[in-house]
Design a protein that fits this description.
With 87 residues, this protein is of the alpha/beta class. It contains four helices and three strands, in the order αβαβαβα. The protein has a three-stranded parallel β-sheet, covered by helices on one side. Helix 2 links the parallel strand 1 and strand 2. The protein is globular. The N and C termini lie far apart (30 Å).
């Protein structure tokens, strides 16, 4: 189910997950299933480091790195930037 969702997603946001090198199960899942044309958003105080890790681990191709936005902030700060419609 996760594989299918990753393949079909047009946009994926990672919030506070650093994609550590030792987490080979998640790295493998992302490497094999991530839609390489999807736009990625990384929300983390060290987002550029994580963006580089995606490329270094072969999860996301270097030529698509422009599709990755790096938001150098924490979760609470990121939430304040979202526009949530009134209900």
């Amino acid at each position: 189910m996760a594989e299918r969702a990753l393949r079909m997603a047009d946009e994926i946001t990672f919030i506070g997950y650093s994609i550590p090198k030792y987490d080979i199960r998640v790295a493998g899942l992302l490497k094999t299933s991530l839609n390489k044309s999807a736009t990625l958003r990384i929300v983390d105080p060290q987002s550029n480091r994580i963006k580089n890790r995606l490329v270094d681990l072969g999860i996301y191709p270097q030529d698509k790195a422009n599709n990755v936005s790096a938001e150098d902030c924490g979760f609470k700060e990121y939430l304040s930037t979202l526009r949530i419609p009134n209900r």
